[in-house]
Amino acid sequence: MLTRRDTLWGMGGLSLTLGACGQAGSALSQHQSERKLLKIPQLLSGKKNGAYTEYNLKIQNGTSTFFEGRPTSTIGVNQAYLGPTLKMDVGSTVRINVNNTLQEDTTLHWHGFHVPAKYDGTPHQTIKPGGTWTAQFEVRQKPSLFWYHSHAHKQAGPQVYRGLAGPIIVKDPNRTEPALPDTYGVDDLPLIVQDRLFGNNGELVYARSMHDIMMGMQGDTLLVNGGIDPVFECKTELLRLRLLNGSNSRIYDFQFADRQSFLTTGSDGGHLESALEMSKLRLSPGERAEILVDMRHGEPKQMIATPTSDGMGMMDDAMMDRGMMGGRWWREDNNRDGGRSAFNVLHIVPNANLDPSPSVPTAFMKHAVVDPAIAVKTRQFVLQMGMGMRAGNGFTINGRSMDMGRIDERVKLNTTEIWEIENASWMPHPFHIHDVQFRILDRNGRPPAQHETGLKDTVLLSPRERVRLLLSFRDYSDPDTPYMYHCHILEHEDAGMMGQFVVES
Ligand code: C2O
Ligand code: CU
Ligand code: CU
Questions:
Q1: What is the C-alpha separation between 124 and 122, in angstroms, rounded?
Q2: pLDDT for 377-430, tens place per residue?
Q3: 112 CA distance to ligand 2 centroid (A)?
Q4: Residues having CB within 6 Å of any atom of ligand 1
Q5: Which domains does the chain have, with CATH numbers?
Q6: Which of 73, 129, 385, 440 is the most exposed, fewest CB within 10 Å of its CB?
């Protein structure tokens, strides 16, 4: 067990000043003076209904107020923007009724969940305007943060952008979870991080220009649980933050303005084997992580997120060379936020008297050993963005764009495979696979960093990088209904960087 005396978080020499986050720049720091309390999504535990726990979700249009006096048209679930946190128990059977009150087709996908393909909420389970779709499955996940979001055919980008997403927290009612802070909204918070671009009228801007499609939609304002530059009053010594990069395309490095370290305790699909001291954590769209923040020093802390620009310069040059877009416009556009300045994520202000938190367990769980020898098959996936293409036909996996009528891969139930993903393009892509939680074998032949050794469903590939994943296909087979794998930059997904696989018995 770690005690206060351990130097884990380096208590000494704290020099936090609010100026330290002033680097956030223009639009961001303007809101400093009008900080609002962090919004905590309502917790929806569902209603026990015989053998099921039932949830009713209504996808609806709404009007949100991100800026005073400038209303924004949004989409939400049971509310105007985003949706409630669905709390699900391991081993329970859930039934989720999803009612679409929009004027457009949509779907709701349970990102990271292991469910039968027909309940996965992919473009094959479209919910028509006015329609209701019911998904029903047993919760076979490890405790972690997951999320639901639109997976509508070619419309995931704009729908998620307008707000069609929300968190899912899976808990183990048998308390086999490590003793971490777990009072929702008090010392256990989901943080849904999304950048957005607003017009002067307050409306969201989603133009799908060539630039937006290539780079993915990027904004200059960071929303955290649907609010800008929020503050949270912390009442406990330790604060557990469940981070979700719910952005359409931006990749961020999360850290504290004082550069103090934190403990990373979980990845996409579950706890790590033990807590890791880190001072910076990178998350690409779709990825999650759990961290513990020590507030015992009694000083406010500012979490910031720095957008990464990995590969962007090369991308920029490559596109200019081919005369794809006017350089002036490109550069201006790319410099909207200075490219590298940081966004404020959360200002944490500790109470004068903090309630004690449990000490942090040194070991959380044992993961199965990753042994590539148990794989019966290796499949290759090459991600490519064609240059000089017309929008929509250059985003490929293995040279092909998504076709809903084509099954790309057929996998045998109860087998383990290696999937080798290669990023052959000039920009980073977060690769996501449905149905399974996988393990990362290696990156360019080298073992993954420690925080990536746990359960993952989304993996970021740098330009020219090759990553090998180990996946086991269990429980569910359906020769006719596919699962997806795709880039989680939603504009790339919508443009076709997606494929389909079925699991056959
Ligand atoms: Cu988070 Cu196929 O999606
Ligand atoms: Cu998914
Ligand atoms: Cu991509």
A1: 5
A2: 999 999 999 865 554 468 999 999 999 999 999 999 999 999 999 999 999 999
A3: 5
A4: 109, 111, 149, 151, 286, 432, 434, 484, 486, 488
A5: 43-171 (2.60.40.420), 179-355 (2.60.40.420), 372-504 (2.60.40.420)
A6: 129
